[in-house]
Amino acid sequence: MKVFGRTAVSEFLGDMVVYRNLVPCDPRLPPLAAMRAEVSLPEGVIPRKSEPAYGRVIAHLLREARALDHPSAEIERLIYVGDTQLNDGTAFANVCQAGRFRGLAFIGADRPDPPKTTIVEKGDGRLYVANRWSAVSQFDSLLGAQGFPVDERTAIIIDLDKTAIGARGRNDHVIDRARVAAVRQTVEKLLGSDFDAVRFQAAYDELNQPEFHAFTADNQDYLAYICLILGSGLYDLDPVVDDVRGGRLSSFQQFLGEVDERAGELGDGLRPIHDQIVGLVRQGDPTPFKAFRYNEYTATVERMGQLDDDAPLEDLLEGEIVITQEVREVALKWRERGALLFGLSDKPDEASVPSDALAARGFRAIHQAETHAVGG
Ligand SMILES: [Mg+2]
Question: What is the reported pLDDT for 267?
């Protein structure tokens, strides 16, 4: 592996990117609100990556995006590059089905075992699941032989998190570390002198485990809120763990309701944030802890491009969120051949795009933030 200088994901994707709210960063494309009727999506619903409606939205956006630069080219084929077989594989199959595209997907990771690529049939498409990111160039060289040309009638979807940046198995822990740092900063700021770093870390590590996903809905906003309430001393970790294991506490909503009944005990420092979260959860907002997500944005961008250009490779992979050179290279090649490139991210918009105040100070969206490209 080598360092390939500084760049940004926008080098190959431009602003053809959507974050979790499905509002394209390129203002020429319609926001979700403007296409609900066309994709049969009820008011107020933002589909998640694994839902069929997500596939309809993305297929629609791909056609709209293609019409901007090649109005005569109809998209017929889809290539999807991601890092998780289940989530990305399902999104891929749904986009193929919604758009009636022929599809091939590359699911990458770096793993310690000997190089291997497994083929998995998924819906009408096919996944190439590889344990080396470098295998994406072999995937590319197979396309021609499979009657799968990459041209103006081909759309390329590139997953952002742990694919285009923070490659899974290579650099993804830096993305996770930024998120945990943001939870910690948020809780610490709200608790002030009551904050106990050791107790916080113990609570976060315990409740972040799969065993508690049913309780936390595997939702980092919920988890951050629970850690905040535990840190306040209103509840202790052990009884909460026992209640979840014993089935007495089965959902985050139940926990939130119980805290709400004792909200008077929270004190002036935590009451406003508690009330805000209760309100947003009732409205169905899946990312109700806004302060945490704003901190996640800064914790993420401050880990992009912050190291010197002559920093050793190991330091970059350990401390910086870097661009996956293999993905960048193949993306640039495909764009050269005329394909439409489009980026997807599951990260909430608040954690991905700067506030107006930060934008005025020069902060950029995650896909526009410069960092080093690293790969083989
Ligand atoms: Mg991903």
Answer: 87
